[in-house]
# Entry
Amino acid sequence: MSKLNPISHYHLQSGTMEDDKDQQIKKLEKQLRDLQEQSASQRSMYEMTAVYMKQLQDELRLSEQKFRSINKSLTDSIDYAKYIQDAFVVKVSFLRKLFEHSFLVQRPKDTVSGDFVWAFENGLETYLAVGDCTGHGVPGAMLSIFVISMLNQIASSQNKQTPSGILEELDALIHKYLSQYSEVVRDSAEIAMIRYNKTNGRMLFSGAKRPLIHIRDHQMTQHKGAKYVLGNNDRRDEIVNDTEVHIQNGDMIYMFSDGFADQFGGQKNAKFSTKRLLSLLLEVSNSSIDQQDEHINFTYDQWKGQNGQIDDVLLLGIRL
# Structure
């Protein structure tokens, strides 16, 4: 039996170990190359992503600049629209020249409003109206300016007109000018109007969907406006007419748009409602004008809470 030469056995083992090392080295070299390729690929992806992110940032920065420019342009336009509307509508400072003991609760939903107060003096008689035009914001404001312009035109053209006569003529003018390009008139207005003679205390009232509230000694009389929306033939069941309101010193009268009553809020997130508004007016009617103004504004804020305002709000009060 032959014996394995120790030297040959050593050389055999040594050769095998060398082969194993070579294989391991090659394997490690391959793994290193793979890692280098992955690293290069990841570096390339990172660089591409960085370039893409920079492009996005540049585009977003440019979009933001454009947005700010457009927003500023719109804001400037709306502010100018408010400047124009303010030149047409009656403000509380002018109202108090006509009726010393008076107040206005004005809460536009946006910067400008579809609600308005209009006044006109003709000798001893003063015409005063609260109007609520379709919509709010810029469209409502543009319509309110149109309606006020037509009211000024009507009131200046004749003497001794009744409120109902003015409303009927206004209705005709809305149809004449706003229905030229459409068979359906979507622009409309609801108005409460009085004519008051300060000498003899006589008052006439006419309303198109808007009431006049008269309170004396904590007793309320509600003069409802006719179911007659100016400019809309489909929304009228009655004709406008005049009602004589017998006035005594100290009486309170109120006119308002529907924004306050329609505001959602309270614990059940319901509408404030006309019924609740009338109760509020009766509650505050014996208070001073300033106290009434403060309490009505406070009540509105408390009711609305965190809810968004849904419409323009306008309420006018006068102690005669």
